[in-house]
Amino acid sequence: MPQEVGPMQALSGTSDLALGWYAVRLGPAEDPQIATGHFINFGLDPAGKPDLVGRPVTVEMRQNYVDEIDKGILITSTTVAMPDEAKEFSYAVPMQEAVFITDYSDLTIRAELGT
Prior knowledge:
By secondary structure, the protein is mostly beta strands. It is built from 1 helix and 7 strands. The strands form 2 sheets. The protein has a 5-stranded antiparallel beta sheet with strand order 1-2-7-4-5, with no helix packed on it. A two-stranded antiparallel ribbon has the order 3-6.
């Protein structure tokens, strides 16, 4: 059964990816004691900025993220193209990467707009 995490906390950056990057700490979650069934669900919206459409957006799951100088440990990442309208994405974290999560209370999702 999927586990919902608690409220998220914006850490740094801006949700307007046109300005570069954005990081959000996930709310606390219990360790499921299994490395399968991990997903990153996220939405992207070019918000009326056609110059963003098609540009790569890399979404990462990190542990121990502090800031852009100390990004912590990269657990996994995926890159998608910025869609031409609001769209939801779901990324299944590979088991061989999820096994490296050691602290489910300290996970951050970070997104960065590429060129």
